Amino acid sequence: MFYVNCFLLYSILGYLLETIAAFVTKSHFKSGILFGPWTPVYGLGAVLIIFISHYFFAQLHLPRWKETIIVFIIITAVLTLLEWIGGVGIEFLFKKVFWDYSDDPTSIGHYISIRMSLIWGLGSMIFIYVIYPFLKNFIKHIPMYVTIPILLLFIFDTVYTIVTKEKIT
């Protein structure tokens, strides 16, 4: 249940991060495609970062700074691919482009840009060295009676959104 809790918690924190950023920048952007307070790409991204960093830090046997550079490059590529898959998937399912980096001079199509990829890579390093260690113990102690209802709500929200194709803003 640890990784399910990671997925749910970081999906919620990602939603909060984007909502706060939209409020601060006074943009009309609404985080996520679902009704609930979660943006699953952040949860999936966090779980991927955890898996990838654990695997490579355990396997490489290099000085930590070299491992960090390698992990940064790999995670940046994986998160960029995740963002592209998310954009293509949303457009395919809902016939809507949810974000567009076309105006960014570093864009590669409208779903990814080199600038955003580097931001995701830097964010992943902050996640690995600050956020995850800070929250790891808390996540380990989330009881099943909290996880299960939230997971069921998330699943219902996802299925309802896909079936009805509502909420997309």
Write the layout of secondary structure elements.
Layout: H1 2-25, H2 40-59, H3 64-94, E1 107-108, E2 112-113, H4 114-140, H5 144-164
Helix pairs in contact: 1-2, 2-3, 2-4, 3-4
- How many strands, which pairing sense, and closed or not: the largest β-sheet? 2 strands, antiparallel
Helix content: over 70%
How large is the share of residues in beta strands? Answer: under 5%
Q: What is the terminal separation in angstroms? A: 31 Å
In words, what does this structure look like?
The protein has 169 residues and is mainly α. It has one domain (2-164). 73% of the residues lie in helices and 2% in strands. It has five helices and two strands. The protein has a two-stranded antiparallel sheet. Strand 1 (107-108) and strand 2 form a beta hairpin. Helix 2 runs antiparallel to helix 3 and helix 3 (64-94) packs across helix 4. The mean pLDDT is 91.
